[in-house]
Amino acid sequence: MASLGTVTNSYMDSHGLHETELVQETPIAISINDVNYAVIMVTDVDVEAFVTGFAFSEGLINQASEILDIEFRSIEACDPLSSPHHILANLVLTNRALQRSRSIMRQRRGASGCGLCGIEAVEQAFPKLTPYHPIPTLSDEKWLSVKATFSEHQVIGQASGAIHGAMLLDKSGKIVAFAEDIGRHNALDKLIGKAMIAQHALKDCHILMSSRCSTELIMKATRTQVASLAHLASPSHLAVQQAKQLGLHLIHLPRHAPPRHFN
Asked: Which residues form a coiled coil (predicted)?
């Protein structure tokens, strides 16, 4: 039986016909005050949280109140190859946020013309972030305790697998929110959006993710000013370099080894 975020599919093997749950992957076309901005592939649960967190991570908004409205439209599939089921999400921003977003949208158009092959495009892909001095990270005992409960919160993951999870912890290590998505960046954006909508301050909180840590996740986490970003998979070298420069506590929680702190 399908659950939220999954679809029941049939398959054949040597024992006959079976059913299994597969995670949903849905295009969402985001526009800003009716101007096209981006198309992202998401698992269509917690979509409002995703759009809010994505807007924050992109620098379009600084707080949820700068979004006056999100106009959603669900478009049914015409053809799974050329026009699958998709979602339209139009963000109506305050005047101040709209002025800010117009500058970002101009940069995005400039970068998209040549991908990341030019110096200007690379600089746009790696915006200047201000180093900060967060509170100490959690103890190893606390990280291992949280890690042991992580899979219990993966509702979609338990049904289908093949999905990333992101967990928000407060300053003391208490679980505040959890998000899942087929994309690791989306999972983090959903988590950020959930906190913003609930008006839960992210500064000096801690985040645990199931995926490896890439540079984009470092930038998203740094923008929120969380104290720690921990992962169940190892980080990239560049992610470690960036975390050290910015002051973010970066931790890898291996399956059968003590936590590794890249500070």
From this structure: none
Nearest to 234 by CA among 256, 253, 258, 206: 253
| Each residue's pLDDT tens digit, 135-160 | 999 999 999 999 999 999 999 988 88
**Catalytic pick from 78, 114, 117, 205?**
114
Cα end-to-end span (Å), the chain: 45
Q: How many residues does the chain have?
A: 263
Q: How far is CA 158 from the centre of its chain?
A: 19
Which of the listed residues 73, 91, 125 is the one where a domain comes to its end? Answer: 125
pTM over 0.90: yes
Residues sharing a CB contact under 8 Å with residue 45, sequence separation 6 or more, in sequence order: 4, 5, 156, 180, 181
Per the structure block, which two tokens stand in for 257?
A: 């080894």
Structural domain containing residue 154: 140-261
Domain co-membership, 161 together with 240 = yes
SS3 content of the chain, % helix, strand, coil (to 5): 35, 30, 35
* Residue at which a domain ends, from 125, 149, 171: 125
